[in-house]
Amino acid sequence: MKVVDLHCDTLMALSKARQSGIEKTFGRNDLHVDLFKLKKGDYLLQCFAAFTDAKNSPSSPLIETLQEIDIFHEIMKVYASDMAPVYCFSDIERNREEGKISALLTIEDGGVTAGDLSVLRMMHQLGVRMITLTWNYENPIGYPATDFEKSATGSFRGLKEQGLAFLSEMENLGIMVDVSHLSDEGFYDVARHARKPFLASHSDSRSLSSHPRNLTDHMLKVLAEKGGIVGMNYCLTFLDEDRDRLRQRGAAETVADHIEHVRKVAGIDVIALGSDFDGIEETLDLADASKMHLLVDALERRGFSTGDMDKIFSQNALRFFREIL
C-alpha cells in the first residue's frame, strides 16, 4: 500500500542533533523517519516540515528554518538515487517512474516569514510548497488553536488582515494552505476566503478526542465540501483522552477509529495521513514509518476496501496535490 504522509518533523530532529554535536545520517538512524524506514513502509511521498519553536529559538526562527531547509536540500543531494524533491505535480509522477521516493518541503508556522510577502516568495523559490499558517503562538498571520476562548475584546480570533493577504499570495504561488494549528475562527476565515482547496496536514477528530488541535464534525464537512483533505495525526494526545485505553488498544486501532468517524461524517475522499513523526514522542505500535502495515491491518479488520484504503494512504493526497501544485 503506497503511502503519502503530509507531515513529519524530521528536519527539526536532524537539525537539533547537529546543533548538539551529533550527526545523524538520513539513510538510517534512530528517528521515526529515515530512508530505510520509508522504503520498508512503501512510501511514495513524504512531506518534510521545516519547524522551529519561535519563542524558544536560540538564534532566530527564520535562521533555524533556513538551516532545516538547507538540511532538506542536502538530503536531496546525498540520496539523489533514492529520493527527489517535488516542486510540481509532474515531479511526483516522474519520481515514481524512476523508482524514487518523493520529498515535499513544507514550513510549520508561517510566522517565520513575519507575514512578509517577499519572504513568502523567497520560501517558494527555496522549494516550499506547503505552509502551516500558525503553530501554537499568535503570529502576524493569525491565531492558534490553543483554546476555545474569545479574546479580551470579546471577539473570536481568526486570520489577521495580513493573514488574508498571505493566503491570497500562497494561492497565487501554488503553495498549499495548511490549517492545522490554526484557531477555529481562522479555519472558517480560510474557508470563506480561499479560492482553492486547503488542507489540515496533521489533525484528528474532535468528536473522538476534544483537543483544540482536532477538527469538529462541521469543520470536517466544510473541508470536504471545499475539496480539501485532513491528515490523520498519530499523536497520542490527539487520539484518545483516555491514555490507559489507548495503550491497551494501540495507536493503529485508534487512528482507525478516527478514520472511520471522519468517513462517516465527511466521506472517504477527505481522509489522508499526517503522522507528525519526529514531532511526537510516544507512538506505541505505530513506532515509525516502517509500521504502516499495522494501520492497513486495522482498516482491513473493519471492512475497508482496497480502493478506500488506497484513497486514504495516497490517492486523496495526490488528487489534492494535482489541483494545487
Automatic annotation (TrEMBL):
UniProt-listed Pfam families: Peptidase_M19
Domain of life per record: Bacteria
InterPro entries noted in UniProt: Metal_Hydrolase, Pept_M19
GO BP of this protein: proteolysis
GO molecular function: metallodipeptidase activity
Positions of transmembrane segments: none
Protein name in UniProt: Dipeptidase
Organism listed in the record: Proteiniclasticum aestuarii
